[in-house]
Amino acid sequence: MDFKFLLEQAPSGGMTYLGWMLSGLMWTMLVSIAAWIIAFVLGSIIGVLRTVPLKTPRLIATTYVEIFRNIPLLVQMFLWYFVMPEVVPVQLGDWLKGTYPNLITLPFAQFSLWEFTAAVLCLGLYTASRVAEQVRAGIESLPIGQTNAGLAMGFTLPQVYKYVILPMAFRLIIPPMTSEFLTIFKNSSTALTIGILELTAQSRQISEYTFRTFESFTVATLIYIVITLTVIFLMRLLENKVAVPGYVSQGGH
Amino acid sequence: MGDFDFSIIIKSLPILWDGLLLSLQLFAIALAGGIFFGTLLALARLSSFKLLSYPAAGFVNLIRSIPFIMAIFWFYFLTPVLMQKITGQQGEAVGPFTSAIVAFIMVESAYYSEIIRAGIQSVPRGQPWAAYALGLNYWQAMGYVVLPQAFRNMIPIMLTQAIILFQDTSLVYVVGLKDFLGAASKAGQLTGRLVELYIFVAIVFLVICFGASKLVKYIQVHMDPTRQRAVSNDVTLNGPGLKPGGG
């Protein structure tokens, strides 16, 4: 095993192989974080809708979850990237595929902004269905007495959610939400199928250029492990900070 | 809106069917292998023997912290190398299907071992103690007392994980295997009709996985652990854990 090749000049991008690896990490993080914002916001809304005592919103939310949970992520990726531009009006489709502007020039962006957008949309909307299930489970784990007490005090239903249920539920679901973020972070590697050069794709590309498969996969694997451990550590700090005394076990993991 | 020609699906049915069969084959082998090795890994992790528990924990945590695709790439690279070391034969070609199977069994055994470990830990400690007190050895206590109860508690989660595994088989696309998605991709590229084929693939997966998840829910309701416990309390003397497939 010899990792010195990482500091050699790579054939393109004007950087070393280590630079390739780090640019891959950057794209992994960009895709994951952008997708997580969509997943968190949309997933919270859908999760709440699944618990409200109204038929139509609940049906819509349940349908969303069932559709996005029961199609493989990779198939969804292809639906967004290949199928979506063809089923929208022609002008919009052409704009997406051809002239959708590259607003920003980032290092090692050999793919278009449309590919990035498709990957983020796909991962975000897919993970939203998983986040929604966590939010729903968090809300349902609270005693019904909390809702009833809130309503009895004259709160409207939205107020009960805002002041009583959600502040508790979101604290309770920090551990499962951490694993959802780690899932989105790992799932971002499926974006390589539509041309995003994220960490996994870069490690394979480096192995193809240098024939040092073992070393390059090892480096990528170590980076994944370090990020995973960091996220777990940070989320535990957050969990302890917002813990409700006597309700959520404090740091007892 | 472009023009769509869904008759292309009828024409591509034979190649799609072959793809679906390959997906199902991979699914079945990975499921069986994953549960088998997952059980061994879970037992190793729960062992008090550190030489067993530490490597098992390390393997499981390693696999769980990298993307599935990264794991596929790893085993795709490692399998031929290791096979050559084991058999000692040079140039013995290992096909992509074999490598994919190894990758899936390894990854799924890590995922399943976590489920099985939780299931084993859900069995009260008194059960193995009672088994040892009756003179059963470790494997007998596990095989006749602990695991049957653990597996029964785990069935809904294991089936849910099986649905996820079935969806994950589409990831072999990245090593160019012609599974269901790969076959559709190939047919789509040949005919220039990717859109219709991808929509078809999505619908087929949706129908299979949605149906399967409804089935799991049905099983879950009919195997309600509280009902089961009430039943097993009535027949404690007869040893409910020993009845195969009961519940």
Model description:
- The complex is a heterodimer of chains A (253) and B (247).
- Chain A is mainly alpha-helical and 253 residues long.
- Chain A has a domain at 25-197: MetI-like (MetI-like fold, Orthogonal Bundle).
- Helix content of chain A is 72%, strand content 0%.
- Chain A contains 10 helices and no strands.
- In chain A, helix 1 runs antiparallel to helix 9 (199-210).
- Mean pLDDT of chain A is 87; it is low at 249-253.
- Chain B contains 9 helices and no strands.
- Chain B has helices at 7-46, 50-65, 68-87, 96-121, 126-133, 138-168, 180-191, 194-222, 225-234.
- In chain B, helix 3 packs across helix 4 and helix 7 packs antiparallel against helix 8 (194-222).
- The interface between A and B is large, with 41 and 32 residues.
Secondary structure elements and pairings:
The complex is a heterodimer of chains A (253) and B (247).
Chain A: H1 17-49, H2 55-69, H3 73-87, H4 90-99, H5 113-140, H6 144-152, H7 157-172, H8 174-187, H9 199-210, H10 213-242
Helix pairs in contact in A: 1-5, 1-8, 1-9, 2-5, 3-4, 3-5, 5-8, 6-7, 8-10, 9-10
Chain B: H1 7-46, H2 50-65, H3 68-87, H4 96-121, H5 126-133, H6 138-168, H7 180-191, H8 194-222, H9 225-234
Helix pairs in contact in B: 1-2, 1-4, 1-7, 2-4, 3-4, 4-6, 5-6, 6-8, 7-8
Uncertain regions spanning at least 5 consecutive residues of chain B: 230-247
Q: Which range best describes the helical content of chain B: under 10%, 10-25%, 25-40%, 40-55%, 55-70% or over 70%?
A: over 70%
Q: Strand-residue fraction of chain B?
A: under 5%
Largest interface: A-B, 41 and 32 residues
The percentage of residues in β strands of chain A lies in under 5%
